[in-house]
Amino acid sequence: MNTLIISGGNINSDLALDFMEKQKPDYIIAADRGLLFAWEHRISPDYIVGDFDSVPAEVIREYRAHNRIPIREYNPVKDATDTQIALEKAITHGSSQIWLLGATGTRLDHTLGNIYSLKPALEAGIPAYILDEHNRISLIRGEVRLKREEQYGAYVSFLPLGEKTEGLTLRGFKYPLTDHTLKNDSGLGVSNEITADDAYVSMKTGILIMIQSRD
């Protein structure tokens, strides 16, 4: 099941609507202010979650009138962000793939928190991606193969999620590596490029943040 989470960060409308037209998600979760984007574009989510402290009252009233849409409201003082809660719902609902729109923006703390929130999906074996007009962000571990024709933009960066990633090998890249320990205080993994039709990433320990980006 292809799940889309619409979160409350910056959303490029053209990108989002084109993505939805092509991907045709099976299940849509609106997380807090992401509900406003859904309302503005007449999108009917399958599940709504949040504390709704940043959603106009008339918007949440309109969706409450649709009794068929489950709404889970939280106290603004809580231990998890709305996006984290939406991700947990996507995982437990049986998603086979998860996409997040509106998970980046001007609040760097929220952006970083959302990237770290991808870890439970990784541990559950569910591919999860944060998408905006410049970046496609995911977490990877073990072995991953990338096709140049499917990459998002010209650049791909690898950053450890944690102190370090050991035994990192990159093949098919402009800057290859063999059995390298990549630490989180190094910029070595930034702005690489795929040069082969098929590129190969493997690591012995750790998790990498993979950011495919375009200017």
TrEMBL record:
Annotated transmembrane regions: none
Class in the EC hierarchy, top level: transferase
All copies of domain Thiamin pyrophosphokinase thiamin-binding, residue ranges: 142-209
Record's keyword annotation contains Isomerase: no
EC number per UniProt: 2.7.6.2
Key word Amino-acid biosynthesis present: no
Keywords in alphabetical order: ATP-binding, Kinase, Nucleotide-binding, Transferase
Entry protein name: Thiamine diphosphokinase
Lineage: Bacteria, Bacillati, Bacillota, Clostridia, Eubacteriales
